[in-house]
Amino acid sequence: MKKQSRRRRSEEKDTLRPEYDFSKGVRGKHATKYAAGTNVVVLQPDVARDFRTAKEVNETLRAVSKMLQQHRKRSGRKTV
Question: 78 lies in a domain?
């Protein structure tokens, strides 16, 4: 197994432009608020080709969900 060399911060080349100043930034400041209202789902490439936008995915899933609810009502199944 090869040893991976790790650069120390002082050895790393600074490629950040001067106009980007993150010295007062807070990591994860909005992460909790964002995560509370968001569910991230990763689509397989073949599915992603058919659904280009989140709107298309949501419309399709709502239609399927409605069909499932109607089917469950007819068959007498309880929804979870």
Answer: yes
pTM: 0.47
> Please, are residues 78 and 72 in contact by the beta-carbon 8 Å criterion?
yes
Q: Does the residue 73 lie in any domain?
A: yes
DSSP 29: T
What are the angstrom distances between the C-alpha of 15 and each of 10, 12, 18, 26, 42?
13, 9, 9, 20, 31
DSSP string of 45-59, one letter each residue: HHHHHH--SHHHHHH
For residue 75, the enclosing domain spans: 55-80
pLDDT in tens, 24-56: 899 988 888 877 877 788 899 999 999 989 899
